[in-house]
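Internal tracking record. Fields below are filled automatically when a chain is submitted to the structure queue. Please do not edit lines marked as system-generated. If the sequence contains nonstandard residues, flag them in the REMARKS field before resubmitting.
Queue: standard
Priority: normal
Entity type: single polypeptide chain
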Amino acid sequence: MDKRYLAQHLVNEGILSQEDLVELLRQKSFDAVETVSGSRPVVDEHPVITAVRKASGRELQMEMETYGEYMELFMRSLMEFLEGPAVIETKAVQPGEMGDVFYAVSQRMDGDVSIVSGILAEDREFTELASRYSEERFNSARDEIAIDSLEEFLNVVNGVFSIREAAKNESVDLEVPRHGKLMSPNGNQQLILRVHADFGIFYVVLSSDEFM
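SYSTEM-GENERATED OUTPUT FOLLOWS
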């Protein structure tokens, strides 16, 4: 198994408690995850897809394949620039559970496969995520360059996703990224995933149409 996905496997199997996960992420080390895993046998080669399947439930069975493949790519890309582990919870988040105001970026992919992906975070986490990706320091999620940074990250991930779909003879066009500030997302066939990283929590939203 790719060691970048090992922490996700441990979460899926219930091996890591919430407290253990937070401490592990603070170490920012894939090697630390391997130490925790020890000699436990690993069967699942796609733990991100497994986590998305658990979160999706019966309501999103038709979207599951696309959402799972997308999140595997997203998490790989995320961990490359974080240079450390990150995991998604195996339980979907309901819009009503998100009481605070979130900053958001999103991008629609349309064609044979239609999907909107987005990142939602409170000010501190949004700013930190943008800073990590761009390797510049920002003071607020309202900074236009911080917003541009996360729009660029989404565009890069979605560009790779569209190329992979093209290899399967599926045409996917990318629309211009959007950004905004909202209480909660509101899309069709929507899945909200809570992502844990060393600096805190943010959310990934997947839907069949624009959720902002």
